[in-house]
Amino acid sequence: MVLVDYSKCTGCRTCETACSASNHPVPVGGKELPGLGNPYYANIRLHNFNPDVDVANVCAMCADTPCVRACRVEPDGETGRRALYRDEATHTIRNDSARCIGCRSCAWACASQRTGTISPNPATGKPERMCTLCGGDPQCVKKCPFSALSYVEVRNNRKFYGQGPEKIAAQLARNWYGTADFGGLK
């Protein structure tokens, strides 16, 4: 998984650009080159809060996979996989777009039980924003100018593990500023 050290993260959004460029390559002259790096397409997302707290949010690669369990598609007879599944080789969460019905159950489960990283496509309802780990070489980790990101083994006892950006921001604001009040929201 990608682990965020919030004491080092400055909210520069380099992680989003690197992720998007790596995961959305463009064909140029018969070759695939890194994409433009539009943060909208990133699988790691930066959330900004006031007082000034920036929270990078990425899939926690949960061992109990609430998103996969919420998938309403019946398991495939051969593979045993639902439309949303954990890839055995990379341990990332993947979606079989041909089988996905766009019900948004996975996104709801992720938002209500974990980090809220899965985002349904507005047009199709199919899940997006699941971290690919860039095939084992996460570009967000490589490109972070402040070494705030690291590629580590999943352990659910890590601080902030499996928490959404609002909960993390509230804890950081309490520690840094003595308040968890965000513009009237707690």
UniProtKB/TrEMBL annotation:
Q: Name one GO molecular function term.
A: metal ion binding
The 4Fe-4S ferredoxin-type domain, residue ranges? 1-29, 91-120, 121-154
- Determine if Transport is one of this entry's keywords: yes
Family matches, as CDD domains: DMSOR_beta_like
The record's keywords, sorted A to Z, are: 4Fe-4S, Electron transport, Iron, Iron-sulfur, Metal-binding, Transport
Q: Where is the signal peptide?
A: none
SUPFAM superfamilies under this entry?
Answer: 4Fe-4S ferredoxins
Spell out the protein name for this chain. Answer: (Fe-S)-binding protein
